[in-house]
Amino acid sequence: MSEIEGIYAIWLREAKIYMREKERVISSIVSPLLWIFAFGAGVGSTVETVQGYSYQIFIYPGVVVMTVLFASLFYGVYIIWDRKLDFLKEVLVAPVSRASVFAGKALGGATDSMIQVVFLLIIGLFISVPLTPIVIIKAFLMLLLISIAMVSIGLVIGANLKSPEGFTLVINFVMWPMFFFSGALFPVSNLSGWLSAVTFINPLTYGVDAVRGIILGTHQFPIFLDVAVMLLFSLIAMGIGVLSFRRM
Amino acid sequence: MNTKPEGCFSEEPVVIKTEALTRKYGKISAVDSMNLEVKEGEIFGLLGPNGAGKTTLISMLCTILKPTSGRASVNGFDIVKEPGKVRKSIGIVFQAPSVDDLLTGRENLQMHNLLFGVPREIRKQRIHEVLSIVNLEKRADDLVNTYSGGMRRRLELARGIMHHPKILFLDEPTLGLDPQTREHIWEYISDLAVKECMTVMLTTHYMEEAESLCDRVAIIDYGKIVVLDSPSELKNQIVGDVVKLKQRTPDTEALKKLEYVRKIEVKDGLLYLSIKDASKHLQDLLTHTGSIDFVEVRSGTLNDVFMHYTGREIREGEAEGGFWERMMKK
């Protein structure tokens, strides 16, 4: 009982802080808008259709996943700030287990990301992405799973580093390869050789595939494989996360 | 000093006990084989310059830091084997502020309630109580980033006592506060020690803080306890009064033979004498000094005690090094 209250307390703090820092919300909405309207529409004007959809619609699921990826990974930097400013001490000396502290933080990060997802889903309705209530619910759950996996990785990196500058450096090495080799911007079916191999070992490829399958109905892999890979990946990331928090 | 209400503590059992407690950083022992006993209901001070090992000691007792060797128990719980129980029974106010800026005072307290498992039915009542003790009721619903330094400290004090801890640890509770605010915080500390029936252990490098607040003081240097007693005992027994004078012809031989002169020190051409009772012996003393240019009498301070044992003063400059020390750690 007290563990659950502990998780709730930490989550609540994260959610409140997020809502009070308007810059965080605004900045995270602007970049996906640029991807959809500037990049999507721009490249879309030279590309006919991809898998039967306009390019703008085709990359929409990829952009939503990208937003989740970026927001979730970068969330890890706040653990470094919390530590630097000593806010974290209060939590670390509390009689709750480190697993609960991690869970609260991870849920807080996932909440941040999912608020942005809600914004993007609303925008999707306006650019005629085929979104039905069922699709929205399924996509939301899949994105939540992706978010928890990525928040966990962000927290692992954050818990093991001491400076925000170092975090940014490391996270860029994780974030960009994951994004580019995930098929968010192009279908992975046409790739050949090494590029194709890289996409297959990138767990995010399966996340993108699942979300695109749910929203646009074009699957590369069976959905259960997508979900299984993301689930396994999340569990591993969370496990390492709890271990990192114990050493903190 | 604080007087406890009747029935607060029936006897005075030991609530903090360390046995050869040691913490090493590489080859340096920050806390060196320390033996210490704190009794229930005391306000116990750890006094010493920065880097003396005060914060390291408190961090170990609060289970944030594992000892390299030795044992310690807090409220009867072993700090290594039962950290969860230790944490539940203590309150901590850290050296660096750890209240959340973007939450209100009340929200900070609510979060603490949840984290420390304060029973649901008394939460509201308890928040009200602690806010009134530290006099923050009116500002409770403002964001903490609008608070002054003193108000933040008070909020942290309130938070530290929220879950009815038996022992409250305060790490430099008035560091960086102006003298007026500092005195206010002292009042709050001794006030809540009485109202909440608590044992308080605090670290400080402010002499006046230890003198005006603590029942007993352990002077610490290089990770070891130099001396431990009540502030008045320390001053009376060890230093007494200090007579500073300048002799025309420096000669301390005659003075050394006087039984009431405890210690003679020469610094910058001035003579510093520790005298048992200066008001009684001054007349006699001056007959042995020869002609003098200058004399000054003052009562001894804890700084004199510290100097007596270590041969140096706790200088503010050294002591205020906390900021850099923290920067280097991170």
Report on the architecture of this protein:
The complex is a heterodimer of chains A (248) and B (330). With 248 residues, chain A is an all-alpha fold. Chain A has one domain (2-246). Chain A is built from eleven helices and no strands. Chain A has helices spanning 2-20, 22-44, 55-74, 77-84, 87-92, 98-126, 133-160, 164-180, 193-201, 203-216, 223-246. Chain A is globular and about 60 Å long. The mean pLDDT of chain A is 89. Chain B has two domains: 14-234, Rossmann fold, CATH 3.40.50; 241-299, Lrp/AsnC effector binding domain/regulation of amino acid metabolism (RAM) domain (Alpha-Beta Plaits), CATH 3.30.70.920. Chain B has helices spanning 54-61, 83-89, 105-115, 123-133, 149-161, 179-195, 207-213, 231-239, 253-256, 278-288, 302-310, 316-319, 322-329, and strands at 14-25, 28-39, 43-47, 69-74, 77-78, 90-93, 167-171, 199-204, 216-221, 224-229, 241-247, 261-267, 270-275, 292-299. In chain B, the strands form three sheets. In chain B, strands 6-7-8-3-9-10 form a six-stranded mixed sheet, with helices on both faces. In chain B, strands 2-1-4-5 form a four-stranded antiparallel sheet, covered by helices on one side. In chain B, helix 4 (123-133) crosses helix 5. The two termini of chain B are 38 Å apart. The chains are: A mainly alpha (248), B alpha/beta (330). At the A-B interface, helix 1 and helix 5 of A face helix 2 and helix 3 of B.
